[in-house]
Amino acid sequence: MGQLEGRVAFITGGARGQGRSHALALAAEGADIVVADIAADLPVLGYPLATADQLAETVKLVEEYGVRAIGLQLDARDTAQIDDAVARTVGAFGRLDILLANHGVIDFATVEQTSDEAWSTIIDTNLTGVFKAIRAVIPQMRQQRYGRIVATTSMGARNTAPNLGHYIAAKWGVIGLVKTTALEVAGDGITVNALAPGATETALFFNQPTYDIFVPDVAKPTEQDFRRRLDDLDYGLNGVRFLQPEDVSRAVLYLVTDRGLMTGQVLEIGLGTSARGIY
Are 209 and 107 in contact (CB under 8 A)? Predict the structure, then answer.
């Protein structure tokens, strides 16, 4: 019997990457899973987002653990869509125990060069969308007198980095939102925490805009150019250049199986970057 037998988890950004990994980790522990994802590209971003086929594949992989799963295509920035998704989850499973507000997008630009559209896209997705997901699940969790909310922030919100002002502003905002919400639901059986992963091998990190930023001296740098540059910089810890999604999922399991002693906290999976004081 798994640690999450009888629990229901709602995961945003669940079609691929960290979201898919989290869904499989929770399913392996017996939780029923709802995976939500926009599963469509956003025009301001220079890399492709997840697809409807990837969302369906995540559902299929979850079901192989013998638990129930639903895939929902939605935009977490849209109040009506996120509220409807939560209502559908409760209607289908009778409860909602875990929220992983995991979705996020990235864009590189200096503050001076950041357009209004880019600012709004990043802030609305990475902060406002997280807020709307958290707000939507609180009434059900209060009614149950139980809930585990985990929002994904970033090691960039523990330090900082250039060319990411809008992204880092959003991720710092998630920490403030998590801490405030934790105080507001304290005593209701609900914990609210944040995860701060470092660079992780997902499509959010491995894409052309990232390669261009890290390898500016090469025209149209490739993934191999990017990997060589990380080696040259000795990026990471103990020869590990970046995290795997499963590394983050282990931290997720720790927070959602906690008996209620941790709330308003930030759990870093940072490859030692906090100790060095750099991102």
Answer: yes
* Phi–psi pair at 99, nearest 5 degrees: -115, 125
Contacts of 140 (CB under 8 A, 6+ apart): 86, 90, 95, 96, 147
**Cα–Cα distance, 148 to 138 (Å, whole number):** 10
What is the Cα–Cα distance from 214 to 197, expressed in whole angstroms? 19
Which entry of 167, 211, 254, 279 is annotated as an active-site residue?
Answer: 167
Q: Is position 146 annotated as part of the catalytic site?
A: no
Residue type, 245: P
pLDDT single digits (tens) 226-237: 999 999 988 888
* 76/68 Cα distance (integer angstroms): 22
pTM over 0.85, yes/no: yes
Dihedral of CA atoms 168, 196, 158, 270 in degrees, nearest 10, equals -120
pLDDT per residue as tens digits for the range 64-120:
999 999 999 999 999 999 999 999 999 999 999 999 999 999 999 999 999 999 999
